[in-house]
Structure formats: structure tokens, C-alpha cells
Amino acid sequence: MTEAARVVVSIDPGRSKCGVALVRMSSSLEVIDRMVIPSTEIRKVVSKLAKSCRPDAIVIGNGTSAGDVSKAVSDLDIAPVIFIEEKFTSLEARARYWRENPPRGLRKLIPVSLQTPGCPYDDYVAVILAEKFFAAS
Question: Residues 129, 84: contact at Cβ < 8 Å?
Fold first, then answer.
């Protein structure tokens, strides 16, 4: 017997920007959408994602600005808000970013530990938070 698919909106909250991911778990994990947005847009973006795919939960990392983000999305009354420990998720997300976007050209000669990704990778953190949520449930 297979379990019904579950969908979450996962958020890596921050002061100026947030990573957001819409993730489905059925037989495997599927990232439907992910993005990095200004923190001021979180309410509008979560509302839009919820209309496209009714989530079972809103998963929020318990770090910086978690309370502000929680307050902004709780009022939407879309799904229960669940906090997830986000300790070390930024390091894990950075490593995943480099696996999926390896340096090219001369940058291949410099260890990735000494490089900074060319764009924010908060969306990778949001995906990792969703993975932690599904692993715990």
C-alpha cells in the first residue's frame, strides 16, 4: 500500500530574504518549486503557492526571523505551522549548491570551501528543512 502524497511549503526565514520551497513527498521527494525572495514578500508568495497546491503544513526553520515569518503566514490560515531545527542547514545547503553547480573554468582550481556561491542559496536550505520534516514524520 502506498501512502498519499504530502505537500509542504518550507521556509528558511531571514531578515532581508527568505528561501522558499514547495516540496511533495510520495514515493520520493519532489521539489515542485523553490526560490529566494525578499522577506517582505513572504506572505504573498506563500499565499500564491498555497493556491497552486494546497499544502499539508508550512515548515519554518527556527532560526533568524522565524517569529516574524510565522506571524506573517499563520494569519493566512492555510495549514499548520511547524518549526524545524535549522542548525547547520546553511552549511549543508552550501555543499549541495556546489554539488549541483560545480565551479567552471579556472574556478575549478580553487577549493569550493574558499569560494562564495554566485547567488543566494537560501532555497536549498528550505528544501533541506522539508527533508528534515519528512524524515521526522
Answer: yes
Amino acid identity at 103: P
Per DSSP, the three-state class of 61 is strand
CB 43 within 8 A of CB 71: no
Q: What is the SS3 string spanning 7-40?
A: EEEEEECCCCEEEEEEEEECCCEEEEEEEEEEHH
pLDDT in tens, 98-126: 999 999 999 999 998 899 998 999 999 99
Say whether domain 6-87+120-136 belongs to CATH 3.30.420.10.
yes
pTM of full prediction above 0.70 = yes
The domain ranges of the chain are: 6-87+120-136
Give the 3-state secondary structure of residue 102. Answer: coil
Q: Which amino acid, one-letter code, is at 36? A: V
